Amino acid sequence: MSLELLSANHGAALAATLAARANRTGRGFVSGVYPITPSTECMEFLCNQKIDKGHVVRVESEHSAMGVCIGGAAAGARTFTTTSSNGLAYMLENCIAAATMRFPVVMAVANRTLGPPWNIWADHGDALLLRDAGIIQFFCADNQEVFDSILCGFRLAEDQRVMMPVMVCMEGFILSHTVAQTEVPEQAKVDAFLPPTDVPHRLAEIPHTLGQIEIPHQTEVHRLQHHQAMLGVPAIYAEIQTEFAAIFGRRPPDILVPYKADDAETLIVSMGTIPIAAEHVVDALRAEGKKVGSLRVRLFRPAPMAAIRSIFAGKKRIAVIDRNIALGMGGVLWSDTRVFADPGAVVQDYLAGMGGGDIRPEHIAKMVADIEGRDGSGSPVLMEAV
User: What is the number of structural domains in the chain?
Assistant: First the structure.
């Protein structure tokens, strides 16, 4: 194990490289890549790596990048790509195809605001375009988590009980370009963690079709199978955590990361890097005698419904911070999670950091003060209005 200074972009690419080399006894590695800020450094780093059995294909668009991954997965290869923002939107059609054809493509997404008007800073709205497509979505809080999540993503995506894409999200510039110490394992340990890729429905010696026309009942059955596989992801991920810890000596974070939440009367709920600031606020308010806690939602899809409901139980006030907006509705995380609160609980949405704005501890402290003064839930609130 070595300790290296890596940006999250480089960490994701290095993890993908180690995973690619681990499949040298299988059917190799295929990656389709196309540049877009702030994910470009990830693909550049990957293009410069030596992979004995595989190809990184530089194509003319993000749509084609995912097309290359679909082709690679259809041939039984381990597959990876990276993108961001409008690149992900351009890739969307093929992302859905990869998901519905149940191909285990791993994607590193440097979250960035959709445009125009053009904005290159962090916003979760790009990844959330695909929240209902049948793609597993992790949102990371630091560089080590990005690295580890890529390795876990391959193990999860390629599990025979799962077989679907995994998206590992890192906030643009906040993580993608920030350099931090990252533990990097030896290739032998990655080999032990990642068995050769086996895509059971790959195109092989026996001719068959992929993506053919279906009658309605066939589609219903396939969607139900996909849904059931998604629901099984949390338990399978827990198995992967245990195996990861046994091989690498550290345990990846859980799908939900509560912080001083057990006895909290006010709970701050957020994703990505926001919980880091939220936990500082919790410590400060606890010192004042206030029962405040934090919940980091790391696995957004599939939604860990039962676990969220259990943590929300007994909470009087739940402040949900969204670095996104579903126009005409409000924040996506708030919209998804408010149904799990106790009847009568105040569940208030705070829209913050959209377009890459800072979310500092003092901002979160104001949100807590705001929700503590409310008798009921209201319309989503912009941080600047608090």
Answer: 2
What pLDDT does residue 68 have? 98
What does pLDDT average to over the chain? Answer: 97
- Nearest CA to 371 among 344, 341, 347, 336? 347
CB of 330 closer than 8 Å to CB of 301: no
Cα–Cα dist 234/159, whole Å = 13
Specify the amino acid at residue 221.
V
User: Residue 37 sits in which domain range?
Assistant: 2-248
pLDDT at residue number 211? 87
Assess whether 174 and 261 both reside in one domain: no
Quote the tokens at residue 274.
Answer: 């926001």
74 shares a domain with 158: yes
Tokens of 362: 């003092």
CA distance 203 to 56: 20
- Is residue 215 classed as helix, strand or coil in its secondary structure? coil
Give how far the C-alpha of residue 285 lies from the chain's centroid of Cα atoms, to the nearest Å: 29
Residue 204 has pLDDT above 90, yes or no: no
What is the pLDDT confidence band of residue 154, given thresholds at 50, 70 and 90?
A: very high
Examine residue 38 and say whether the peptide bond preceding it is cis (omega within 30 degrees of 0). yes
